[in-house]
Specification:
By secondary structure, this protein is mainly beta. The protein has one domain (2-306): Tachylectin-2, Chain A (5 Propeller), CATH 2.115.10. Helices cover 1% and strands 54% of the residues. It has one helix spanning 293-296, and strands at residues 2-9, 20-28, 31-39, 45-53, 56-63, 82-90, 93-103, 109-118, 125-126, 144-152, 155-169, 172-184, 196-198, 206-215, 218-226, 240-246, 253-254, 275-282, 285-291, 300-306. The strands form five sheets. It has a four-stranded antiparallel beta sheet.
């Protein structure tokens, strides 16, 4: 059973509070780096990190107070913001994957997938490409986002969301997205397909931010699910964290046992919404970071499950 341990952090550099899509990168035996993205007052997402004590993320050791890197130039895929979602060790470097935001005219925005190379010292972020490494294509015609990448069986594997539609709900355009899978030999050039990992269970359901680990030969995924109606409100079809398993990484089954998820608190920062979980396995425990109310405006917290 998952046990909530409390709130960890909110970002106040821009007085907005947002600390979204947090995930852990163990950088030393006694230090974990938590990457996350915040929002400015003009709703531009920017990348940051904090360092915490390993195995005790509630103890913050260092707070990075300047963005790690910046959005692209006018017209580029990440012109209007950066949301980091996963990181992979590649030799002495790391590949840090993110989604780039692009405001549109006919729809509110579009999303594409980019990457930066984190150099050995962990402080230099090299945006190797000005363009995306995965964009909309013949199988993903509207937008792609939320890359979760691991290196497994001698290849890079990515689970990501793809937009299938924009629908009009109460005079607002709302996106619908599902979870797909891609592979790469080098972590940069990706092969996609029409195959879907997880489809919507009902009309209007969207599946967000997949997080995958491979544990004892089983692929385990935590993801966020919401409906299209009133999902910004507690009493609407708000985000909740769900869980699925797979033997091959391609074909997934949702498992709705309460033992695999966390639930809303009665009051406080995570009492209205649960979203964007990431999970690290360490010392016979699962460490989950997750966002609460208002898509991470209240920051992120910690839950732990003994194995």
């Amino acid at each position: 059973m998952w046990i909530k341990k409390g709130h960890i952090f909110s970002n106040n550099v821009y007085n907005t509070g947002y600390a979204q899509d947090a995930f852990i990168d163990p950088i030393e035996n006694d230090v974990w780096r938590i990457y996350y993205s915040t929002r400015t007052n003009d709703i531009t997402s920017l990348p940051f990190f904090i360092d915490v004590e390993a195995n005790n993320p509630l103890n913050i050791l260092n707070i990075k107070e300047e963005p790690l890197f910046y959005p692209g130039t006018l017209g580029s895929f990440d012109e209007n913001g950066i949301t980091m979602t996963s990181i992979v060790n590649v030799g002495e470097e790391k590949f840090l994957y993110y989604c780039g935001w692009n405001r549109r005219k006919t729809t509110p925005y579009s999303l594409s997938i980019g990457m930066v190379i984190v150099k050995k010292n962990g402080e230099l972020f090299d945006k190797k490409f000005k363009g995306p490494i995965l964009d909309r294509n013949k199988y993903d015609p509207i937008a792609v986002s939320a890359p979760m990448v691991i290196f497994d069986e001698s290849i890079f594997k990515m689970w990501y969301i793809t937009f299938t539609d924009w629908i009009l709900v109460n005079n607002n355009l709302e996106p619908i997205f599902i979870i797909k899978y891609a592979t790469s030999k080098n972590g940069i050039d990706w092969e996609t397909s029409p195959d879907v990992c997880l489809e919507s269970d009902y009309y209007g359901e969207s599946l967000a931010r997949p997080w995958v680990i491979k544990d004892n030969g089983i692929y385990k995924m935590w993801f966020s699910s919401r409906g299209a109606r009133g999902y910004r409100n507690k009493d609407g079809e708000h985000y909740e964290i769900q869980y699925a398993e797979s033997l091959d990484g391609k074909n997934w089954k949702r498992i709705k046992s309460k033992n695999n998820i966390i639930t809303l608190s009665e009051a406080g920062w995570d009492s209205e919404m649960l979203a964007y979980a990431s999970v690290l396995k360490n010392n016979n425990k699962y460490f989950m970071l997750y966002n609460g109310n208002d898509f991470g405006k209240t920051g992120f917290g910690l839950a732990i499950k003994e194995i």
